[in-house]
Structure formats: C-alpha cells, structure tokens
Design a protein that fits this description.
about 525 residues, three-stranded antiparallel sheet, about 40% helix, eight-stranded parallel beta barrel, alpha/beta
C-alpha cells in the first residue's frame, strides 16, 4: 500500500487564521492528540518568532511522543548573514526537534522585492542553510514557498531553488501553493515537471483561497507527492490550509493509500471536534466527513431511501470516521423522517393510522410560524411523544408577572418575576429577582418547582440564543429563542417562538423542564426493569 506521510501544521500555520490563538498548554494537548491519532509529523511552531513557541519546544523536550516526529519551523538564513550566526537558525537548533522545516523563496518577485537580494544570493541561502542543518543531524524539510507562482513566472529559476535544496541535502522538498490560486491541472503539470528536476521525495502544501486546497493536495499525491501538509479542520491564514480531516479519509478510503494507522481513522471526528473545542470555536457543521451535517438527511425522499439502504445517499459509512447519521425533521419532512426519528428515540408511533402524518402536519405548521427543530431535539422529542400520549405536564401556569424598574439616578434596572403554578392539586406562588426578565423568569420557575422536583437543582442553562424570524416587522417581529440546558450527564436544546421575547423564552424554558422530567422518568423505568430482571 502506497504510504503518504501526513505533516500537520495546525500549531503553526493553523494559528495564523482569524480567531485562533492557542496557549502553550493548548498546543501540548493538540500535539499529544495528533500523536495518538498517528500523524507522522507535527509542526510545533516558529521558535525564533515568539516566546510562546519557544516555551512550547522547551516543554516538549520532556514529553515523549510515540509516533509523531516534532518539527520546528523557520526560514533560511538572512541575506546579510550565514547559518552559523543567524539567530533564526540558532533558535531552530535550540528547539532540539528531530525535524527542522525551513522555507525559502522560489519566486523571483519575492527574492528581488521582498528579500531585496540577488537571485544568486537566494540560492546560496537555501543551500547553505539546508547543509548546515543537515550537518547538525536534523531531518530537513524544505518548503519551496510560492513555488507554483514562481514556476509560472520563471520556471528556470524556480527549478534552481529546488536543486539548491537538494544539493544541500534536504530530505523532503515541499512545493507550496502559498497564495492558493493554482488550479489542479496546473498543480499536476508543474508537479510532474519538478519531479524530473530532483530525486528528493516531494510534498505539497496548499492554501484554500480558491477552495481547491484539498483537490490540489490530492492531485499532487497522484502526481507523486509522498508528504501532504495541512491542518485539522482547514484552519489557517486567509481562507485556510488544506483540510487534513478531508484529505486523510480520501487517501485511505478512496485512493487505497496509507496515511494513518487504519484503526485510528474512526477517531477522526473526535479529533476534529477536539481541536475546535481547544480553539474555542464552534465546530463547522458542514465539514465533509467530520461535520455534524456530513451525514444529516432532511428531505423526505432522501430519508425514505436511507431507511431502506444508507448507500442511496451516503458515500461512506459514518462510523468509519467516527461520525453518525442524523435525520432532521422540518417542513421538508415526510412520514419517513418522523418514523426514523421516533425509532431513534425509542418512541412507538404508527405510520398507518395517521399518527406520523399528524406529527408531520403539526411540524410544518409550527415551522411556518418560525420554529426550527433541527437544533432543538428535545422540543422535537416532546412533540413526537405528545402524539403518542406519552407526555405528562409536570405543572400548569396560573399566572405570571414581570416587573422591570429602572432608577433614573443610578441607571440600574431591577427585574422581579412573580409566578403562580399548579402542581397536582397544590398551588405555588413565588417571586425571584434576576439580571433581566428572562433570568428572573428562569429563577422564579425553578424556585417554584424545586420543592416538588428537587432534581431540577442539577440543571442549569448553558446557552441562550435569540434570532429574529422576520426583521421586516421591526420591533414587532417574531423571535426564536433557543435554549441549551445541561445536567450532571447530558445537555439538550429546546425552542420557543413568539412576537414576545418573554413568551418565546417561556415556551423554551417549559420544554427544557418537561424534557428533564421525561429523561429522569425514562431512566427510573429502565432502572426498575433492570432490578426486576435481576430478580
């Protein structure tokens, strides 16, 4: 099986993306996770550029890696110095990594205008730096920056830069589409030309400015590349780098090549989401293979077919990359969606007696009002269970009052919610303050119910979002409130819609509590059945 070596640069190139900033601890966590996943190379950063990367490499000296080779990144020596005295090169050696990756200029435009040196001096800088690093016992990866643009501008000079790196002893030469503007057919032609110039193994480093980083990387592999550089989730400067979460499964499942140990591939989705979490970014739902929507089915015809054979609308089994199938229920749904979802939730409803059709009709009516259930599975489950007569409301609202007072002198708002509930044959009246009306409402509702349902003390709101359904109505527009609630072992999402933000919040809060009660009741029933079976 043809081996392709994965070179991950999430910790260096990935951090140059907007909104991404890793602490030293973050970088160590990600490096260890990449090692566990079986990535061959991990580029840890540029030790000569900032104290954070220098600390990372210092700490990694005492942290063993099982599979991964750690690489330090930097540039060739400057035009005014030699490698022995160049501070950047000195710091690369101080990092004490087994691999050092340096980049050099391939495009005469950069040599003459960015570096401000001669074409001949640039070749000397490449050769001298690679040779010096090799003399110090390093595996050297040479990144030919802007190679494709340089080759199109002056193929003769771009070729000489590769030959200088080879002459210096580079172990791998990586052709970089740094601006991300090269087309796949150009990558193929130029890559094949480069492979005739040098005998050193070649790699590819592609950026995504034309939405072609993955395609260009795969084209390079098919043209002879043995190393692919990229980042987890495609993080990176401007439009990002080649997304390894797409490249790895394509190499292994579509092209029959080896990129990571086969048994590790099922951890790909978890790896993708882990890196997003560490970056404090919401995972992108529409990422191929690892995104939450990668195997999500919404159209009724699609779901009907998937229920018969998943291959009808899925190009691979989701579990092969650690993902899972999702069936969405919306105004585009048919009975198949509802039946699939009910089965997934363990709810028995019939498709023959009109029960499923009734749920579909209600869903379509609610979505017409502004509801969206794709991100509110708990509210959807309540809706389906109601059709099966499987929901008992734990309380009834008698009355609700919210008072907001604003002191003109201190400018501080004071909010109090008073709520009157019926729980069985008992009436509970209580009041609570809050930071704003929704918080006061939430506090009052929980305070009123805690004596009846003490398990509600385990729950808390972990997220609260408001969306305007139709902004054309201005301040009278309907709003959609999405609430995420968590307890000791899970979290769930509920939705409410109304022209009144308090009413919309109330609906979402009620669903949140109803779902908690349903969940606990199901758990208790399962526990009782387990005890009875043991007897």
């Amino acid at each position: 099986m043809h081996q392709v070596y994965i070179y991950d640069t999430t910790l260096r190139d990935g951090t140059q993306g907007e909104e991404i900033s890793f602490s030293v601890e973050d970088k160590i966590k990600i490096a260890l996770r990449l090692d566990a996943f079986g990535v061959e190379y991990v580029e840890g950063g540029w030790p000569g550029s900032n104290p954070k990367d220098m600390e990372f490499f210092e700490r990694m000296k005492s942290i063993p890696l099982k599979k991964t080779k750690l690489a330090a990144f930097g540039s060739t020596c400057r035009a005014s110095s030699d490698p022995q005295s160049d501070e950047n090169v000195i710091q690369l050696l101080k990092a004490e990594t087994p691999v050092v990756t340096i980049f050099g200029k391939s495009w005469e435009l950069h040599v003459l205008e960015a570096l401000g040196t001669t074409l001949e001096r640039n070749l000397e800088m490449i050769y001298d730096t690679v040779k010096y690093l090799k003399a110090n016992g390093k595996e050297v990866v040479y990144d030919a920056e802007h190679f494709f643009d340089g080759f199109k501008s002056n193929s003769s000079y771009a070729s000489k830069t590769l030959q200088a790196a080879e002459a210096g002893g580079a172990d791998t030469i990586v052709l970089c589409d740094t601006n991300g503007g090269t087309m796949p057919h150009e990558v193929e032609a130029i890559f094949k030309s480069a492979s005739q110039l040098v005998r050193v193994p070649l790699g590819i480093h592609a950026h995504n400015d034309s939405e072609l980083a993955v395609a260009n990387s795969l084209t390079a592999v098919r043209s002879g590349a043995v190393q692919v550089q990229g980042t987890i989730n495609g993080f990176g400067e401007r439009c990002g780098n080649a997304n390894l979460c797409s490249i790895i499964p394509i190499l292994q499942m579509k092209l029959g090549m080896s990129a990571v140990p086969p048994e590790k591939l099922a951890g790909l989705t978890e790896l993708s989401r882990f890196v997003s979490d560490v970056a404090n970014l919401q995972p992108r739902k529409n990422l191929p293979y690892v995104g939450q929507s990668a195997f999500a089915h919404k159209g009724g015809i699609h779901v009907s077919a998937v229920m018969k054979s998943a291959r009808t609308y899925e190009h691979i089994e989701p579990k092969l990359v650690g993902n899972s199938r999702r069936v969405l229920v919306s105004d585009l749904s048919g009975k198949s969606n509802v039946l699939y979802k009910a089965k997934e939730l363990g709810i028995e409803i019939s498709g023959n007696n009109g029960q499923a059709s009734s749920v579909v009709n209600e869903l379509k009516s609610l979505e017409n009002e502004g509801y969206v259930f794709e991100d509110a599975d708990a509210s959807l489950e309540i809706l389906i269970r109601k059709s099966a007569g499987d929901v008992v409301m734990p309380f009834e609202l008698e009355s609700l009052h919210i008072i907001i007072e604003k002191d003109a002198n201190d400018g501080i708002s004071h909010t109090v919610a008073t709520i009157k509930l019926r729980v069985g044959d008992k009436i509970e009246l209580t009041a609570s303050e809050g930071i704003g009306p929704v918080n006061a409402l939430d506090n009052a509702l929980r305070k009123a119910l805690l004596q009846f349902y003490p398990q509600l003390a385990e729950t808390k709101l972990s997220d609260y979002k408001v969306r305007v359904v139709d902004g054309a109505d201005g301040t009278a527009a309907k709003v959609r409130v999405l609430i995420e609630t968590t307890d000791l072992d899970s979290n769930w999402d509920t939705v409410g819609v109304s022209e009144n933000i308090i009413e919309a919040s109330w609906k979402a809060l009620v669903d949140s509590i109803v779902y908690k009660m349903m969940k606990d009741n199901d758990k208790n029933k399962a526990s009782k059945r387990h005890v009875e079976l043991r007897k």
